[in-house]
Write a structure and sequence with these properties.
With 281 residues, the protein is of the alpha+beta class. The chain is 48% helix and 23% strand.
């Protein structure tokens, strides 16, 4: 009695499962790599959206203060009080017009008192006075005043279209600082900056603060900007942001499944193949 044994099919049946296991491991590696790339790119997008959101929250606060302060320029009652030397009355009118103002100061044109001792007066404060006087409109910025950072506002005061001096308003920064709470998605960093000074920060400041700025959002009417940083994100295979790796993983898994299926086909499927005959007792 003779039996046919397909040697090639037997070898394939042994090798294919091993190759399939290798393909499956490669598929897992590509899937994991794809998840990392996709997560990093998703964080970049989330951070960019958060940056725009924060800028959209900061701008109304700044614009609101600027609008209220700008209305002071043409107030005849304030100008009259200042010309009469009654600064207390003028300051009271300002405090009433801009609720929450911590302090008010008036600098006559020429800023003699400020220039006589700029260090004591405050360089930031003086810079705001100069800007407001030169531009003829409110100047806003974060400066050191009152023992810490404050939002400073300088407003030119007009009397019959003539600038008689500049009002300085010291505003609290607490409303801006509140915006930092939960502003940055986990693993990213967001800050409101003026020059190299961080007005507020949110997120992983320790690791990301020093990263280069990309597309900061400028706060209109100020020199402040909102910036966001994330760990570097790779484009991934085919520049698809992780989808390329996922596609390769799926292909490898399908190939592995096909090999396993092929290795487990019934022996009858190979009957047509050449066989090596062996003698049976």
């Amino acid at each position: 009695m003779k039996a046919g044994v397909n040697v090639k099919s037997m070898n394939a049946n042994k090798v294919l499962p091993i190759v399939a296991a290798v393909f499956a491991l490669l598929a897992l590696w590509f899937a994991f790599s794809g998840w990392q790339v996709w997560s990093a790119n998703s964080l970049v997008k989330s951070s960019e959206e958060a940056r725009k959101k924060v800028a959209g929250q900061v701008q109304p606060l700044i614009s609101g203060v600027a609008g209220k302060a700008g209305a002071l320029s043409s107030r005849s009652d304030i100008a009259a009080a200042l010309l009469a030397g009654n600064e207390d009355a003028a300051k009271a009118l300002v405090m009433q017009a801009v609720p929450g103002t911590e302090a008010v100061d008036f600098a006559p044109t020429g800023f003699a008192a400020a220039y006589s001792n700029p260090e004591t007066y405050g360089f930031g404060k003086l810079a705001l006075l100069e800007r407001a006087s030169q531009e003829g409109k409110p100047a806003i910025g974060v400066i050191k005043d009152g023992g810490g950072p404050r939002l400073g506002v300088a407003v030119p005061v007009l009397d019959k279209a003539q600038v008689i001096g500049v009002l300085y308003l010291r505003e609290p920064i607490s409303e801006l600082s509140k915006l930092a709470e939960g502003a940055a998605p986990k693993g990213s960093y967001i800050a409101l900056r003026q020059g190299s000074f961080n007005v507020f920060e949110s997120g992983d400041a320790e690791n990301l603060r020093g990263h280069p700025e990309a597309n900061p959002v400028q706060i209109e009417g100020t020199s402040m900007r909102v910036v966001s940083m994330t760990p570097e994100a790779e484009a991934g295979k085919f520049g698809a942001g992780g989808l390329g790796e996922f596609g390769i993983a799926v292909f490898l898994l399908l190939a592995a499944a096909g090999m396993v299926w092929w290795s487990r086909r019934p022996a009858a499927a190979f009957d047509a193949a050449p066989a090596v005959e062996t003698a049976a007792a």
